[in-house]
Amino acid sequence: MLGACTTTRPTAYSVETRGPYQLDTGDTVRVSVYGDPEISKSYRVDDKGAIAFPLVGAVQVRGTTTEQASKRLASALANGYMRSPDVAVEIEQYRPFYIAGEVKTSGQFPYVYGMTARAAIATAGGFTPTADRNQVIVYRRQADKMGRSPVPLDFPIAPGDTLVISERWF
After folding, report:
1. Edge-to-edge strands of the sheet including 162-165?
2. Cα separation, 23 vs 81, whole angstroms
3. Which of 11, 26, 159, 161 is the least crowded, having the fewest Cβ atoms under 10 Å away?
4. CA–centroid distance for 8 within its chain
5. What count of other Cβ atoms lies within 10 Å of the Cβ of residue 13?
6. pTM over 0.90
7. pLDDT > 70: what percent of the chain?
8. How many CA atoms lie within 13 A of 135 on its CB side?
9. For residue 17, what pLDDT is reported?
10. Which residues are registered as beta bridge partners of 88?
11. 14 has pLDDT over 90
């Protein structure tokens, strides 16, 4: 009787849909300057996309990778403050993502690397009884424009994304 049952292979989604992660407003980075524990600490990327760094002032990091940001900080420190500074930058906390619509708790939530739309919905307390459980609308900033796209539940999201869960039609 069960001979007619078939098993299907799960669909695989790539976790990383874009190139290396780029810093933006709201990210918190840990900056380590070898030999100088006083300026080795956490910094938040401000609204202008910069880190207010001791000695050198604001250093623009929006749109850079952590490796590029460390080079910019080292270059700024080498410009009259330190000889051959060794700087490392790592992400301490990603900027949040946002979720609205037919979930139990709408709002802003902390992003975790590799998060999918399904995981984001779980973070928001799950679906409401009237939610469309088949797709999510993702809004993502792309350069100076906002992109909008319906995506499946296992689609990888990014920090700063806004997810909207629609109501289903009965």
Report:
1. 107-109, 97-101, 162-165, 136-142, 145-151
2. 25
3. 11
4. 32
5. 13
6. no
7. 88
8. 8
9. 53
10. 32
11. no
pLDDT at 1 over 60: no
Tokens encoding 170: 């009965």
| CB-CB neighbours of 93 under 10 Å | 15
Residues counted in the chain: 170
Q: Which amino acid is at 102?
A: E
Q: Which amino acid is at 11?
A: T
Q: How many CB atoms lie within 10 A of CB 80?
A: 8
3-state secondary structure 58-126: EEECCCCCHHHHHHHHHHHHHCCCCCCCCEEEEEEECCCEEEEECECCCEEECCCCCCEHHHHHHHCCC
Tens-digit pLDDT profile for residues 69-84:
999 999 999 998 888 9
- Cβ 156 vs Cβ 115: under 8 Å: yes
